[in-house]
Amino acid sequence: MIERIAWLWPEIILFLATCVVMVLGVSPRLALRRQCAFVSGLALFLAAMVAIATGPMATSPWPQMVPFMKGTAGFVGLLTLLVLAGTVDREVDRDQELGRGFAALRANRAEFYAFFLFSMTGLMLCASADDLIWLFLALELTSLPTYVMVTISTRRSRSQEAGVKYFFLGALGAAIFLYGFSLLYMGTGSTDLGAISTQILAQAEGGAINDIAMAGLVLSLIGVSFKIAAVPMHFYTADVYQGAAASVSAMLAFVPKAAGFIAILLLVSTVGWQWGVADTAGVSLGAGHSLPEPVRLLLWVMAVFTMTVGNVLALLQRSIKRILAYSSIAHSGYMLVGVIAGPQGARFIDNGVAATLFYLLSYGLMNVGAFAVVASMEHKGEEADDLDALRGLCRTRPWLGWTMVICALSLLGFPFTLGFFAKVPLFTSGIAAGEYALVVILGINSAIAAFYYLRLAALPMLEEPVGEAPALTRVPARIVAGVLSAGAALGMVLVAGFFMERAARAAVPGLFDGTHASQSATDQIARSGERRADE
Amino acid sequence: MTGVIDQIGGMLAQAGYPAPMSVLTLSHYLFVSAAMFTLGMVGFLTRRNLIIMFLCTEMMFQAAGIALIAASRFWLNHTGQSFVIFVLTVAAAEAAMALALVVLLFRKRESLSAEEWAEMKG
Amino acid sequence: MTDLASYAPLAIILLMAITFAVANVVLTLLIGPRRRGKIKGMTYESGMNPIGTARKRFNVRFYLIAMVFLVFDVEIIFLYPWAATFPNLDPSSPDALVWLFRILFFLLTTVVAYLYGFRKGVFRFD
């Protein structure tokens, strides 16, 4: 067995920090409790740096993706942490400052930060997964803490409703992909992604991919679509994003989505992009450069419906958080285009997987800003979530207003913002893969998205302020996060080439380079037989 | 279905190993687990009591557990069995969370119907 | 179908169990003395006088204790495979030491959970 601990130091750092935060956060001393956010931030930064310094993970199906995604997770996580600061325990802290004592059972800070770190650990573990068991645990570790974070994020019953919905649909999604994993194991006899890939190739050479394995792969993809809020399992998104505090919604839009896309890339890498388009599975192995037909069809339908449903429903909303929730669904649809296109060429613009990874990074950065604006405005003690709150914001609260304008334009993919440079590769990679219909639908959807994104950008910029300006939150870190995010949406353009090159390198699959292929399927079976004989 | 299993059995035989488990038996286990999974799914989609809905997802988890154990026996490796241990752990964690959510819900609304929770629409 | 006869002892013991249970209830109904009264109709609480109503809410700490129990309960599952493997390792090899520290680290995580519960006040009853 290959020792994997060497690649897991980022996760170990995060885990140790989680332990510290969990005990620190229930300390009776206020000054100590306030350190939770700093400890979390420090751990995230260290984890990201260690991950980048460690380099590619040899056993992963995408060796170079491991440091890329862990670094992305760490830095977007830091930005999210700035927004998350001050979400819980404001009343508890005030009570203690007024000398009313400290009730540990009422305080939520320890759970909140610890669960945030657990979720980030899960995301990083997803990136380094090379085994179905590992992937299952990592996905669950990403999601389970977020259910609690949604529920405790505010004291309103809406958050609890959101938590209940999120949890129950999440449990359903987990059950579906778990069953998919078990069928995948039944059909191939291994949970190691490399061994599964070898076995599937051997089956295809012998005629056709095993039906059980194929059914398992399809079920897994449907189950994982819960994490990325894609169509068969997108129902929860708007309600959960609206019910949770805006800061937690900012996290929900990135962390589970990134984990889901990593999981999809890992699962799909077991079959690879080497099949003929028109033929059914197994007939023309090596002849084409697309996914096997059942998987391609599933992802194609998922992508089309996800984009369209997300964009059309976003048009009908008045709540900013709901608009952002439906747009988050639509963005998942865009990114699925890159997954379908696959790693076609060495160049960045032809490589769909690289486009997806770069889009994830860009989406994570620019999306935080939009949610940070909502989290920073208060109206009668509640979040100012209605579109009216944005009117004339550039004049009354210029920092917030311009942040919203820039982030909305960037999310739309307006030329010369980060979103534009993220979206173009999706188009070009789709064309390189010959998915013309999909690219046309992607274009139409981008046009639909313009309606509501331009409204989000025009309300603060062009309209007159209505009534008094919304009050600002007392957490300055959120405004900082918003400004940083808007700055990234503009400034990252200058260094986009650097990140694109990293993404292109991250999108080189390691499975088909001969290192794994040397163990043929019969070897695999023979080894399991030997193990049996040893006992 | 049996064709697929024959195929796996055939590959094992090709590698020089006797079929470890009656071919009929694996399809039986697969059938039981698929039936449990489907029942759980149907139950989740049709019932409105939160505890019943949660039990349905647990049933789907256990269906996967049965499939894993059967496949583990069929392929003669321990991977499936160790997978099941982790599945049980995750199921326990989810049970703890479901318990907490259901208690919270009951204290707020005095009811366990999923329809009580429809404040947000649109 | 042929070896159905081997299940006969099982059938007999099932039959005996059912007969015994049913017979006891029926016999008490037939020959037992009947007295009704306030004390007789009281809820059976293992000999104590019942206090309050049965619909009373439990303190939230009971749920917390249940959760802490769950942590230890699930942890045991992982100790079994470890315990089954550990004796097979060569005690002089460095592997044995690594394995020992792995399980100690795993147990340490439980201590953190315990510490958290302690600070949270799960074990205080007042």
Could you explain how this protein is built, in words?
The complex is a heterotrimer of chains A (535), B (122) and C (126). Chain A is mostly helical and 535 residues long. Chain A contains 22 helices and three strands. Chain B has 122 residues and is an all-alpha fold. Chain B has one domain: Helix Hairpins (Orthogonal Bundle). The model of chain B has no long low-confidence stretch (mean pLDDT 83). In chain C, helix 2 runs antiparallel to helix 3. Chain C has helices at 8-31, 60-85, 94-120. The termini of chain C are far apart. Chain C is flat, with a radius of gyration of 27 Å. Chains in contact: A-B, A-C, B-C. At the A-B interface, helix 7, helix 8, helix 11 and helix 22 of A face helix 1, helix 2, helix 3 and helix 4 of B.
Instruction: Bin the strand percentage of chain C.
Output: under 5%
Shape of chain A: globular
What is the tally of beta strands of chain A?
Answer: 3
* Portion in strands of chain A: under 5%
Tell me the series of helices and strands of chain A, N- to C-terminal. Answer: HHHHHHHHHHHHHHHEEHHHHEHHH
Describe the structure using short key phrases.
heterotrimer; A: 3 strands; 1% strand; globular; disordered C terminus; B: mainly alpha; Helix Hairpins
Topology:
The complex is a heterotrimer of chains A (535), B (122) and C (126).
Chain A: H1 9-24, H2 30-33, H3 36-54, H4 65-84, H5 90-97, H6 109-127, H7 132-152, H8 157-188, H9 193-205, H10 211-224, H11 237-243, H12 246-269, H13 293-315, H14 320-341, H15 352-376, E1 377-379, E2 382-383, H16 393-396, H17 398-412, H18 418-432, H19 436-462, E3 471-472, H20 476-491, H21 496-506, H22 521-534
Helix pairs in contact in A: 1-3, 1-6, 3-4, 3-6, 4-6, 4-12, 4-15, 4-20, 4-21, 6-7, 6-12, 7-8, 7-12, 8-10, 8-11, 10-12, 10-13, 11-14, 12-14, 12-15, 13-14, 13-19, 14-15, 14-18, 14-19, 15-17, 15-18, 15-20, 15-21, 17-19, 17-20, 18-19
Chain B: H1 2-14, H2 23-46, H3 50-75, H4 79-109
Helix pairs in contact in B: 1-2, 2-3, 3-4
Chain C: H1 8-31, H2 60-85, H3 94-120
Helix pairs in contact in C: 2-3
Question: What's the quick description here?
Answer:
The complex is a heterotrimer of chains A (535), B (122) and C (126). Chain A is mainly α and 535 residues long.
